[in-house]
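Below is how a single chain appears once it has passed through the pipeline. First comes the sequence as given, then the structure the pipeline wrote out for it. We keep one example in the README because the format questions we get most often are answered faster by looking than by reading.
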Amino acid sequence: METSAGADRTALVVMVDAYNEEDVEGEKRVVMRFHPALAPLKAAVFPLVNKDGMPELARRIFDDLRKSHNAFYDDGGSIGRRYRRQDEAGTPFGITIDGQSTQDGTVTVRDRDTLKQERVAADRLAGYLTGKLQG
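Resulting structure:
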């Protein structure tokens, strides 16, 4: 019997436990379901398209968000591919800036595990995520 328990073994157990594969609309989806408190990245910010003021607003939201949370900015490829990349990285929340965001200051927050989307005021986003990460 080996009684040692180091950081390597703990990290491996967490990663193996988090790894999931599932079928979504006929496509294999790989997801690292880290508990939100353990996820290396807490949120990813995506402008829906790279025009119409969305990238500038997304960058401002990202800059504000990363003051309180470890966040990632991604504007490459389709929104679906960006979501999938973050699912594979284990990021619990995807934040999309779209046309409605530029009009009313709300963003879409997508939950990695449930795939549910919710509109949240951009100026309340950091508090919203803090509540979700603690709960």
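The longest helix spans residues 7-18.

See the next section for the split statistics.
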